Amino acid sequence: MNEEIIEIVNRETRAWDTQDVDLFLSIFHQDMVWPWPSRNTDHDPLLWELYLGKFDHPRWKGIYTRFFQEYELLHNRRTIERIQLSEERDGAFAVVDIDTLWRNRKTGEQNHWLGRVCKVYTKVKGEWKLTMHTGVLRY
Fold first, then answer.
1. In the chain, domain spans
2. Which of 29, 91, 107, 118 has the fewest CB atoms within 10 Å distance of its CB?
3. In angstroms, rounded to a whole number, what is the distance separating the alpha carbons of residues 30 and 82?
């Protein structure tokens, strides 16, 4: 069962590495919500935002297509630190340390995602889907 969670985490990593929007969107549950801290030190959820709202395939595809056009990936290092499955084997989370560095193709400005995330999954019709994901936090 852990292998299935490792696969979906690695599929997301491959999508970032190859900037494959369709592969990236394949991991999301239709009810996905992604809160994001303003800074990676904002542990208090009172400071978090919902920039994308609930998952909407066409809207998110446009957002990530533009992101990949605007930013060049300099590196993407990800390490799975923990996987926890529910006793019923229908829910799971993965704790992943990430160090992902992007550079704006026009301005050269860097966008660094550095810290720890928690990815929450549910099993739907035999397939794992991401339902919730914290933004990157430094601990």
1. 2-133
2. 107
3. 25
- pTM > 0.70: yes or no: yes
Note the pLDDT tens digit of each residue in 79-129: 999 999 999 999 999 999 999 999 999 999 999 999 999 999 999 999 999
Closest CA to 110 of 99, 120, 121, 119: 99
Q: Considering the domain 2-133, what is its CATH architecture? A: Roll (3.10)
d(CA 48, CA 98): 19
Residues 27 and 55 sit within 8 Å (Cβ to Cβ): no
d(CA 77, CA 98): 6
CA distance 74 to 20: 16
The number of beta carbons lying within 10 Å of the beta carbon of residue 64 is: 19
Selection from 9, 56, 59 nearest residue 33 by Cα: 56
